[in-house]
Amino acid sequence: MTSADLQDFLSFAIKDYANDKIEAGTWNEEEALTKSKESFSKLLYDGITTPNEHLYSIFTSEKIGYLWFHTDETATQKSAFIYDFIIFEEFRGQGFGTKSLAALDILAKEMQINKIELHVFAHNQTAIGLYNKVGFENTDITMAKYL
Length: 147
Prior knowledge:
- By secondary structure, this protein is of the alpha+beta class.
- It has a single domain, classed as Aminopeptidase, CATH 3.40.630.
- It is built from four helices and four strands, in the order H-H-E-E-E-H-E-H.
- The protein is globular and about 45 Å long.
């Protein structure tokens, strides 16, 4: 990902994350955008050169999305955590999500990563279906009941 791509990505990712947190009931509307900006600033404090943050533009013959993952290494394993994965709306439903995640598997193996994790909001049933299709399994489930 280039610096220009990062700015494009952030122009909608920050808003999308804020809206997802509102829809999930985690943040209220008044605080969501500020908290989202703070989260992105903390995680990507040095932009595209932030250590352990891997930012990619996804291309076919044109740019179709973005992928951002974090790597972490312990004494027993090297893992990746997908922070964001987006296929632009006009390219969805054409298999690009599946192909992009298959490419990530190849890259992760080359990087000697042996586990890939992610978080998905429960209201995003399309993403849940994609992740299940490519082999992700539930490891934790957080539930809430609003009174």
